[in-house]
Amino acid sequence: MKDVGELAYFLGIQVNRDRTNKTITIRQDGYVNMILEKFQMLDAKPASIPIPHGVKLIKLDKQEESTIDGKIYQSKVGSLMYAMLCTRPDLAYTVSQISQFNNHPSEEHDAAANCVFKYLCGTSNLGITFDGKVGLEMRAYSDAKWGGEVDRKSVGGYLFCLAGGAVSWAAKK
Fold this sequence. Notes:
Blueprint: E1 9-10, E2 13-18, E3 23-27, H1 29-38, H2 70-86, H3 92-98, H4 107-123, E4 127-131, E5 138-145, E6 155-162, E7 165-172
Antiparallel strand pairs: 1-2, 2-3, 3-4, 5-6, 6-7
Helix pairs in contact: 2-4
């Protein structure tokens, strides 16, 4: 083992430690810009929310044709999922919604995924900040929508914060 200095970058996550303000910030600017470039969304008009309010994504019938390449759609969802799992809890609900259609995506599903990329255009510098002045105070938040989806299934989510920064989160159907 050897000491390579203070941690600044790890697995696509930038780590910024401010000793004077007692904060540690983790974010993925580089990774977000890389996936925006990969899917030709770097110059897209930024959106203020990851998925428009009231959007109800429904599955295509097996007989319905789709012009969307399933592999590219799956790559988009997987790229968004990595960002969500590491430093972007704000994407949890949206990623859980669009990932349901990996087997047979439609144009509507692809448009919803592209909307998330547009959201990332305007928020690529967001991350999680842990504040040492707050201390090890734990906070938890949860919400649920019982049977409110198109298929009458429930959706729930939670967020746990420690020292003012998110440490665990999920959104599940």
